[in-house]
């Protein structure tokens, strides 16, 4: 029989967070090995539970969740999102500007599907959350990666961004707080991005899913709050701030100057209708989450578990010779650098394979985030402190062995 081939649209798509190395880890688990998974921000498996009131509200409303909802979502949770945007100082948002989705991921793909024609370009950060690159490619567009500068706290390089704008560029993606680096962007930088978008008539897509996971008193400013003469599309949800990844409950907000985007918005409405609606149980969680006690503040504030684990992970990683890292100001991840003179890595996926095989620790190689060199990897700092000490201890021994095998010593 003739082989059935996958679509050529997938040629430029990768999602290494759940790619070949995690698949190898799954096989090892089936063989009886215990794997320490530092590859994915899945909070529940590390004991970070959603607030009880969210769980109870979903249980109470489950009997009312069997039918389709409005294609954009129920009124009450969308109203709660509208109030949330007002609290973030994003002006001019009405109920009709809010779309609920099966996580922000579904809405990111929808936003690209509605926009892009073959050959259109979208500026995406490097490193990025790889769904963005995949969504652009699957929609027929071309992702163009602008560099974030590790020497400048992983802030976007505005001049690199400027150089990569062409007549085909349609939009700029801003991931703030950033995954995978943990960077948090200052207002001055956001204003520079806005001015660039203004000069070239570009849409700004803002991924703000970690906007409450902030450390050391940091504050997040939504880029859409800083201008009203551009079109902004902002994404958020319950997955991270409320430790509810599996509820698949996210939202997308269209704001700013919308008069010239009526056709695009019609496309968004069409796609929202085609998928019928977001899952109803997850919608019931939104109003309670946004209006209730913000327990994330306890986790990231002084004495909080996430803060303590960030500090411990940073200490353990940077004590390994040849490993440096920008300490994250937000989110759940670190993106450490391996000095190429000490760790001459040609294939960072192979490096991740070897680390997994020898230590039973699962990471994601930097190329999985469209980083430009095989010298970085991403880890989460979600395991409890004892497990992190054990995992990073095994990693340090592997690094020592790797250095010796390649002629580097300390």
Reported for the largest beta sheet, the result is: 8 strands, mixed
Give the helix tally: 13
Number of strands: 15
Low-confidence runs: none
Features:
alpha/beta, 410 residues, transaminase activity, PyrdxlP-dep_Trfase_small, 3-stranded antiparallel sheet, single chain
Summed up:
The chain is of the alpha/beta class. It is built from 13 helices and 15 strands. The strands form four sheets. An eight-stranded mixed sheet has the order 2-9-8-7-6-3-4-5. The chain has a three-stranded antiparallel sheet with strand order 11-15-14. The chain has a two-stranded parallel sheet with strand order 1-13.
Structure description:
The strands form four sheets. An eight-stranded mixed sheet has the order 2-9-8-7-6-3-4-5. A three-stranded antiparallel sheet has the order 11-15-14. Strands 1-13 form a two-stranded parallel ribbon. It is α/β, with parallel strands linked by helices. Helix 7 links the parallel strand 6 and strand 7. Helix 3 packs parallel to helix 9 and helix 11 runs parallel beside helix 13. The chain is globular.
Helices and strands in order:
Elements: H1 20-30, E1 36-37, H2 52-61, H3 75-87, E2 98-102, H4 103-115, E3 121-126, H5 130-138, E4 142-149, E5 155-156, H6 158-163, E6 169-175, H7 187-200, E7 203-207, E8 231-237, E9 249-256, H8 262-274, H9 280-291, H10 296-300, H11 305-318, E10 323-324, E11 333-334, E12 337-338, H12 348-359, E13 361-362, E14 364-365, E15 377-380, H13 385-405
Cofactor: pyridoxal 5'-phosphate
Family: Belongs to the class-I pyridoxal-phosphate-dependent aminotransferase family.
Keywords: Aminotransferase, Pyridoxal phosphate, Transferase
